[in-house]
Amino acid sequence: MYAFNYQKAKSVADAAAALAKNPDAKALAGGQSLIAAMKLRLAAPAAVVDLGGVAELRGIKSDGKNLVVGAMTRHSEVVFSDDVRKAIPALAHLAGEIGDRMVRNMGTLGGSIAHNDPAADYPAAVLGLGATVETNKRKIAADDFFKGLYETALEPGELITSVSFPVPKRAGYVKFKQPASRFALVGVFVADTGSGVRVAVTGAGPCVFRVPEMEKALASKFAPESVANIRIPDKGLNSDIHASAEYRAHLVTVMAKRAVQAALG
Amino acid sequence: MPVKVSMTVNGKPVAAEVEERTLLVTFIRENLRLTGTHVGCDTAQCGACTIHMNGNAVKACNMLAMQAEGADILTIEGVAAADGTLHPMQEAFREHHALQCGFCTPGMVMSAIDLVKRHPKPTEAVVRAELDGNFCRCTGYHNIVKAILDAAPKVAAMR
Amino acid sequence: MGSLNFIGASVKRKEDYRFLTGGGQYTDDVAPERATYAVFVRSPHAHARIRKVDTAKAAKAAGVLAVYTGEDVAKAGINGLPCGWLITDVNGQPMKEPPYPVLAQGKARYVGDRVAVVIAETYNQAKDAAEQVEVDYEVLPAVTDTASARKKGAPAVHDIAPDNTCYVWALGDKAKVDEAFKAAAHVTKLEFVNNRLIPNAIEPRSAIGAYSRADDSYTLYVASQNPHVERLLMTAFVLGLPEHKVRVVAPDVGGGFGSKIYLYGEDVVVTWASKQLNRPVKWTAERVESFMSDAHGRDHVTTAELALDKDGKFLAMRVHTTANLGAYLSTFASCIPTILYATLLAGQYTTPQIYCEVTAVFTNTAPVDAYRGAGRPEATYVVERLVETAARETKIDPAEIRRRNFIRSFPYQTPVALLYDTGNYEATLDAAMKLGDVAGFAKRKEEAAKRGRLRGLGYSCYIEACGIAPSNVAGALGARAGLFEAGEVRVHPTGKVTVFTGSHSHGQGHETTFAQVVASRLGIPVEDVDIVHGDTSKILFGMGTYGSRSLAVGGTAIVKAVDKVIAKGKKIAAHLMEAAEADVEFADGVFKVSGTDKQVPFAQIALTAYVPHNYPLDKLEPGLNENAFYDPTNFTFPAGSYVCEVEVDPDTGKTTIESFVAVDDFGKVINPMIVAGQVHGGLTQGIGQALLEGCRYDPETGQLVTGTMSDYCLPRAGDVPSFKLDTRETPCTHNPLGVKGCGEAGAIGAPAALMNAITDAVGVRDVPMPATAETVWRALASKKAA
Predict the structure, then answer these.
(1) Is the pTM of this model over 0.90?
(2) Which listed residue, of B128, C233, C475, C596, carries a Cα 20 to 30 Å from C607's Cα?
(3) Global ipTM
């Protein structure tokens, strides 16, 4: 990797100040995507602000209605959290599907959604559950957060502090893994929130997206067969050596069906 | 600009001046000359560099040495008892021929110890799924899976 | 023998303790004083003219000690890398042998081709400076695809081969084969690609060159499977150094699978540069470099036909293959798709006529050479996919059609040059069918269907030829090297033994298996025998480890040396016991005078040899140290039967292996535990080829698009099942141990079994490898459409 300046942040305010001061600085959360990119010299930040020591960014709180997960909470903490397992088991399951065990011991929720890899798992949960992303500056609804390929609503110097997940009636996540990277070739998160149904798809397109047609069908009947014949168009979907757009579109339907099945238990 | 990094490795406090961009694995291999932790890839997939940080298995090639500042690090060199007696996981690997060329082995053992800590009574399916982060090109995993299943209760009994 | 016979015992490995505790010493673990670090500048283009390499900026960068380019190595008189096997074209001409420079000369011919090297005080400095080397490329059109290489208008990789053809080579009687096809009741024809693979030993290649002015000598530490061959090629052909002034050490090596057989340009450069700088020069590949620059494997495009009579007897086979050799001829590239491929096309069957024509092409891709199995997996794939397809087409049970054609009497001369010494193919098939409960398959298929899954079963009855030999025959076929092995047995005065072998161990467990062989033969404990390998300064000579040859060839050399030790021991014993040498027999570690109770233990003989007070000094030299070279009289022929059962999820096309049975005949098995481990690993690489692994170059740009572990899929634990193994033994008839070799079998036999199972499940003639979920899903869709 290229040389850079390293700074360990003591607090959110400290980190935000450091990032605001240097537009070429990057926040380092778990580093499981950032360090990998820097090693391949695909990312070259002039400075790295390490959030690893910021205690206020860690932890999981649940009040029955909302589950609030700190931005620096490691994936493995979500996997094994009793609060998460009780409130939103699909979220614990999803976290357990990220990367591998060692990656899950380092990777964080905040890092994942700030990076917004098109094939990452967490964006599907954040969008699928209609979560609220809290930053040092504001609260951003999931629907407004994910903007495009590796693009989010975050402004320079803005840091995710936590994500608040409303507890759904039931939810399910099923992922078809890209066999080499273990990222989602297609992952579908389905949540029955009680007041409606949300379907979020990751891996298939340049950015996580919802499928209104499926949401409508599931709202009238929450059952796998409701989505079995809904086929999203190939247009705009990813097409690469691992899968064609056509196959990804097909998988969206299959994974949606299975996610509904998983939500039904 | 060099930075000072210090941590505990295999029970011993260590410190050094390193370049900021020094990876934890480089610090362990080059500065400490503990060469049992290996580097097999540059995309954090092969798992040959797996070590424990504060009791959790992590990939030492995918983090900065500075991220381990103040941490308690365990590498393969610190797993066996002081008199050289193998840890039950190491012993199970030997017993079941769970290694061939030995290159992935240190990472595999470190990962396996973490695996049975999190899943004290794993099934074969759990072991296979939880080995997602460790590649072995020699053994076909057959004997690694057998060794881990055999070692799980023995490691549990250590606590 | 008594209690000290370890043949057939699963002795735990002697090498494990160091590997389990982090005590292994791989090349990158070696840290010479004052080491410098090399980083290679590699071509980002598949094909480009190098107009200019400007090194000025890089040379001035912090910590940089030297920057060398193709021009520098040419000026230094460094030759290109040699190819070890000359293939003669059907037109009688030698194959085209373009130069294979250690640093590119004038042109870069594949993505990853070495263009320059930067050597600096630290790795980071070398890496940073490498980006400062400015190369002015004129990008040229490239060809990477095997089938397109000879098409009109395809860009020529080398001027001396304007049609990109290295050679066209043929084996068999074409006229007789054509005749047999005319008379056939049924012809099965398949066209397929044997997918290109990237070996990916988990230890990346690594080399440290270290020159010593004190005695004008070099030491090269290198991750190599055959240090002596590396030294011979490098000194005699490339650098022109005196061989005795170069020591090559291959310490612990983290897997090879063929990819570490070859002499690579990096090894030469660090050796040469270490003298220029008078400091050690270290290079270790990043994984991305391994992907682009290790020799790849396979990459055939084949049309294959099988002619059968009305009873399902095979009449003839006709095979046309185009084999991709990559941009340059790697060390053994030329013999893989010829000598190690076409000769295996008889398989386990009595097919009387076989014709195979191989067109070998250059492309703008990494060099292709032997990868676990090397030619034999490709041959087995041809034979076993044809046989299974023919069975389905003629509605003869696939096991039955094999039985009707099995070779049953030995020795058997095939129509493709090999003489099989022994085998019992029916025995392995019977055992595999039983172990795989083939009888219960129909029920399992039905049950799977109820769950919405498609279940399929496939066989593969492979044969391989190991321990390529003898040297004189290989020489007549174009080999430029001998194919023997050397061993030395040093008995110490206390009766402990150190064995020096030219076979290199990088996972195979030689330190244990060879010790078992020696200990059993000498009647001493396994702990009393240590095996030394991998250092040209310690071992007299060696051809190294490849082609599953170590035990059959290297082991036999050791046995011959042990027998010399025993023969000398008998002379000493005869003297001590005042008996005639002819009356002395040796068993269980004791020399005895037959018919008496006089005896002397082995250790006492050893001591006497080194403390020769009571010793026939007039007739015998003191000491007990013997060496032997062994050149086999024939190949060995391991064979086996594999049965694979899969389930396909029709919604996604994803294949799950439900059962994999392998019954192998490796001849005599010395250590069943180690043998099983070899099979597991081979099977997994074979499964990787069939299901997951496929090297891809972009056809437009020539870029390697499967260049990381995120894009090239290696098998993980969850991708394979626990295997069901068994063995049958027909001992090899021409080596004293009766052994055949086991290292490659799994990789040779597995792909066909798996693809036969998938095509059975899906109900189509062919599915290309790797059978990814989408590939299978498309096969299902096309079947539905039809």
Answers:
(1) yes
(2) C596
(3) 0.98
